Amino acid sequence: MKDVDPESDEETPYECFECGKIIIAEDSPGQCPDCSGPMRNRRMPLE
Fold it and tell me: What are the residue boundaries of the DUF7129 domain, all occurrences included (predicted)?
């Protein structure tokens, strides 16, 4: 697995833990625009 720079300027997919909504953004949205749930960077593995 390659390392991903979390500070990169390229667009990254983020997924909501609560409702599953996926958005593409350059910066972490923090909260889901639909349900206000926490968002995760999909390029970072879950552990």
Answer: 4-46
Q: What is the pLDDT of residue 1?
A: 46
Closest CA to 18 of 35, 4, 42: 35
Tokens (6 digits) for 1? 């697995």
- pTM above 0.85? no
**CA distances in angstroms from 7 to 20, 27, 34, listed in the order given:** 23, 8, 25
- Rounded to the nearest 10 degrees, how much is the dihedral formed by the CA atoms of 34, 39, 42, 47? -140
Q: Show the beta-strand stretches assigned E in the chain.
A: 12-16, 22-25, 39-41
